[in-house]
Write a structure and sequence with these properties.
- The chain is α+β, with helices and mostly antiparallel strands.
- The protein contains 15 helices and 21 strands.
- It has helices spanning 17-30, 41-51, 68-78, 92-100, 113-146, 166-170, 179-184, 198-205, 250-264, 274-291, 305-312, 314-331, 358-376, 400-418, 527-534; strands at residues 9-13, 33-38, 55-59, 83-87, 105-108, 151-155, 161-164, 209-216, 222-233, 239-248, 295-302, 337-340, 345-350, 385-392, 440-441, 447-450, 454-461, 465-470, 479-485, 492-503, 516-522.
- Strands 16-17-18-21-20-19 form a 6-stranded antiparallel barrel. A 5-stranded parallel beta sheet has the order 2-1-3-4-5, sandwiched between helices.
- Helix 11 (305-312) runs antiparallel to helix 12 (314-331) and helix 12 (314-331) crosses helix 13.
- The longest helix is centred in the N-terminal third of the chain and has 34 residues, at 113-146.
- The protein starts with 8 loop residues before the first strand and ends with a helix.
Length: 536
């Protein structure tokens, strides 16, 4: 063992000269250096603090008012130096006093050189091992304290926290605080599905675990925490303690929620997008299959969207889409699923169709809300919607695509039947010139002649102006002399200025291919002409 111990500086505290000389000779023979030989407690304390030897051989029975045990206690209160006691007494009272100062050993007088050597080498070896262990613990504490997340060790018997790093201490944890009081503001351990107890789970599985908990910060605000738990086994293989390491993932969960929302939400209107709608609609269809409950699908198109974009710009087109989304939200029930699935196309899944004629009621609500919107919104156009509706029968299930396609086809039938898509007229003057007159839809036989362009077809007309189909675009800002020939009535002649002109979304389906649209504002209107128009 002597080869394992390097040369050390050792102090001898012994008031018997012969014994002190003998010890010094043994130490010199072992290759150690004697820093000094002291004969009383006060000198021992003084030279220990100044010379800082590696080991002190301390006689207990010293002359003077300070014995060896008291001298060791006072030295230990200032500096950490290992002590080996030399004593002529070994009664239980003396041993209790020795243990209180945590010595590295003791040797009883009389002793031989071999016993002295063994006591010294064991003490030095023990001190070396403890120094290394202390350095390792200090390094471990530095590492753990460097962790930015709370780290603590919990006694599984009573849930008290036995060790906590600086991040946990900043959060208010202290020794003997229970983990459930610290993290959850509770008076008893966690026992619900939202907060499964980490300790209980580890005791069941005897494995490490990772769970998500809702903890509360110092201000009482909830935080989403990822709790990592690790078992600590004793020498008998029992779990005596548990390490918990907490990572605050509140911001990450918030970001995940935002990303998930972004993946299924239309950023312009805030409604579900096509992906979100299909996901939710498919879930509802599965529920419908199980519950044998029918569903209804509305396919909705915002009419005249192209004209709004062309004449007033895409920003105004965005306003139209947003207004439409608000109208649908106001008109539908909370349980209904509404989405923007295309440019100017919307879809609604009515999840509860148990009420009589609920489809008709909801469509009527939509139209009534549109009327109120057009009266108060102050836009330079009026919103109009074409709507088609299809039903999902759980006894004959179909795909969402099939359901949408059927509703889409019926929506176009609605568009053609009511000519709603062409009932949006744009007046590009100031808002004070916004159309306020009642408009009349014309029959297929209502034609007019323009003095420059030739024959046009009138789609709708009011005493303020007309919307016409033309084979060629009309020049915006040009004044035309218009000769109207309504069916079975005499000709009406007046002048009007073209305020907008753009391609129609589809041709009229006749040989003349009237594939352009134009809005004409009448520049003069006599009372006779007004009466004539009112009886068209």
């Amino acid at each position: 063992m002597g080869n394992m111990i390097n040369s050390k500086r050792i102090m001898i505290v012994e008031d018997e000269g012969i014994t002190a000389l003998r010890i010094e000779n043994v130490l010199t023979a072992m290759g150690h250096t004697v820093t000094s030989v002291e004969v009383n407690g006060r000198d021992a304390i003084k030279h220990a603090l100044t010379e800082k030897p590696d080991l002190i051989l301390m006689d207990i029975g010293l002359a003077g008012d300070i014995d060896g045990i008291e001298a060791s206690r006072q030295i230990g209160s200032h500096i950490d130096i290992p002590v080996v006691y030399i004593t002529a007494f070994a009664d239980e009272k003396i041993l209790d006093q020795i243990r209180a100062t945590e010595p590295f050993g003791y040797i009883c007088k009389p002793f031989n050189d071999h016993e002295l050597r063994m006591a010294i080498e064991i003490a030095l070896f023990k001190n070396t091992m403890e120094s290394q262990l202390k350095k390792q613990n200090e390094l471990l504490n530095i590492i753990i304290d460097s962790l930015t997340h709370p780290f603590y060790v919990i006694n599984v018997a009573d849930y008290t926290i036995k060790y906590a790093n600086s991040a946990a201490r900043v959060s208010g944890v202290s020794e003997e605080t229970t983990c459930y009081a610290f993290t959850h503001n509770r008076s008893e351990p966690c026992n619900d599905d939202e907060h499964p107890c980490v300790i209980e789970e580890i005791l069941k599985t005897r494995r490490s675990i990772c769970l998500e908990h809702i903890h509360y910060d110092n201000d009482g605000n909830p935080r989403t925490i990822e709790v990592h738990g690790y078992p600590i086994f004793d020498s008998k293989g029992n779990i005596s303690r548990v390490i918990e390491y907490n990572i605050d993932i509140t911001e990450r969960k918030h970001m995940e929620k935002q990303l998930k929302s972004a993946a299924i939400t239309d950023p312009l209107t805030g409604l579900f997008n096509r992906r979100g709608f299909f996901t939710l609609a498919e879930q509802q269809c599965k529920l419908s299959d199980r519950n044998k409950r029918a569903l209804s699908m509305l396919y909705i198109d915002l009419d005249g969207m192209k004209n709004i974009n062309d004449e007033l710009g895409h920003k105004e087109g965005d306003h139209a889409l947003i207004d439409t989304s608000h109208i649908l939200k106001k008109s539908l029930r909370e349980a209904d699923i509404v989405a923007r699935i295309g440019g100017d196309e919307f879809a609604v899944l009515l999840t509860d169709t148990s009420e009589p004629d609920i489809d008709k009621v909801i469509i009527a609500n939509i139209h009534n809300t549109i009327v109120k919107h057009n009266e108060t919104a102050g836009r330079r156009y009026e919103l109009m919607l074409s709507i088609g509706i299809s039903c999902y029968d759980p006894t004959f299930p179909c795909s969402i695509d099939d359901l949408l396609q059927k509703a889409d086809e019926l929506m176009y039938e609605d568009k053609k039947l009511h000519k709603l898509q062409k009932n949006v007229s744009l007046i590009t003057e100031e808002k004070s010139d916004r159309r306020i007159y009642k408009r009349f839809m014309t029959s297929d036989e209502c034609w007019a002649e323009l003095d420059i362009s030739g024959r046009v077809k009138i789609q709708d007309i009011s005493i303020g102006g007309a919307r016409v189909s033309t084979p060629l675009p009309l020049d915006k800002g040009t004044i035309y002399i218009i000769t109207i020939t309504p069916s079975k009535r005499e000709e009406i002649s007046l002048s009007g200025i073209v305020v907008w002109s753009s391609p129609s979304e589809y041709a009229e389906g006749n040989a003349e291919n009237f594939s352009y649209m134009a809005g004409i504002k009448f520049t003069e209107m006599s009372e006779t002409l007004k009466r004539s128009i009112n009886i068209l």
